[in-house]
């Protein structure tokens, strides 16, 4: 039965709010922190049952935070699950080597998140990365909350893409762009924008290449900008279902 306390650590405000709503509506008590330093500060006065930690955060990343938690005399028993957009074998091993008890790849499926957390807390899975068989929980988030989160995500993403596109003519902020598209991969998946998640992943691939193909980068950013300005339908099998109120708003 839910009731355990979960600390959510993510530097993206939309992610924090959405994950908190998903878990709180399933009966979990939630704490949130926007970076690793704040999270470690929380642990001085709180003892959550589980920490959900984004791996790629500015400053201290999620893996360094996990090591600190697992090495602490008073915190070593706290479960740590990594949230990562990189689901390759090397990334999974890096999370485990850092002391994480499991991982959940991004984009997160809102319908199964609570069930996966429940399975980990109940100790029924060998690792939290193993999804529960045929177990889903329909997310109970109000239409108003979802509309607010989606609008905020689209507006902020459009503005940042406008800045990145303009910067192509001068000194392009590659590190800032890489961090932004990493965030978009996870957040857009949570909000049901699978096309935006896919296109953000393509931009991340272009940025990771050396040397960066500027023509390809321009094209990929333009495609992503179109998706932000004209988001696709949210009604597909693997995405969060919209309520009737949501559809009216769109």
Oligomer: single chain
Reading side by side through the largest sheet, how are the strands ordered? 2-1-3-4-5
SS class: alpha/beta
Query: What is the C-level CATH assignment of the largest domain?
Result: Alpha Beta
Query: Average pLDDT across residues?
Result: 84
Number of strands: 5
Q: Mind telling me the C-alpha Rg?
A: 18 Å
Counted up, domains total: 2
Number of helical regions: 10
CATH topology of the largest domain: Rossmann fold
Portion of residues in helices?
Answer: 40-55%
What sort of overall outline do the alpha carbons produce when their principal axes are compared?
A: globular
What portion of the residues fall into strands of 2 or more residues? 5-15%
Q: Give the end-to-end Cα distance, rounded to a whole number of Å.
A: 36 Å
The CATH superfamily of the largest domain appears as: Response regulator
Q: Architecture of the largest domain in CATH?
A: 3-Layer(aba) Sandwich
Low-confidence stretches: 124-128, 130-136, 235-250
The largest sheet, given as strand count, sense and whether it forms a barrel, is: 5 strands, parallel
User: Strand-and-helix sequence, N→C?
Assistant: EHEHEHEHEHHHHHH
């Amino acid at each position: 039965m839910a009731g355990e306390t979960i600390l959510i650590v993510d530097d993206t405000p939309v992610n924090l709010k959405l994950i908190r709503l998903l878990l709180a509506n399933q009966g979990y008590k939630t704490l949130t922190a926007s970076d690793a330093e704040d999270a470690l500060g929380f642990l001085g006065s709180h003892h959550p049952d589980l920490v959900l930690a984004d791996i790629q955060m500015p400053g201290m990343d999620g893996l360094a935070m996990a090591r600190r938690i697992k090495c602490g005399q008073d915190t070593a028993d706290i479960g740590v699950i990594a949230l990562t957009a990189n689901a390759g074998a090397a990334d999974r091993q890096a999370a485990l080597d850092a002391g994480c008890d499991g991982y959940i790849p991004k984009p997160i499926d809102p319908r199964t998140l609570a069930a996966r957390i429940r399975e980990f807390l109940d100790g029924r899975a060998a690792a939290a990365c193993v999804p529960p068989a045929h177990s889903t929980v329909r997310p109970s988030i109000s239409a108003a909350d979802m509309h607010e989160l989606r609008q905020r995500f689209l507006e902020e993403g459009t503005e940042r893409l406008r800045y990145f596109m303009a910067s192509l003519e001068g000194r392009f902020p590659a590190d800032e762009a890489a961090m932004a598209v990493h965030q978009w991969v996870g957040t857009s998946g949570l909000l049901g924008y699978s096309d935006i998640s896919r296109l953000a992943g393509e931009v991340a691939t272009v940025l990771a290449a050396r040397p960066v193909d500027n023509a390809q980068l321009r094209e990929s950013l333009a495609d992503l900008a179109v998706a932000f300005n004209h988001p696709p339908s949210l009604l597909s099998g693997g995405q969060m279902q919209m309520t009737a109120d949501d559809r009216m708003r769109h």
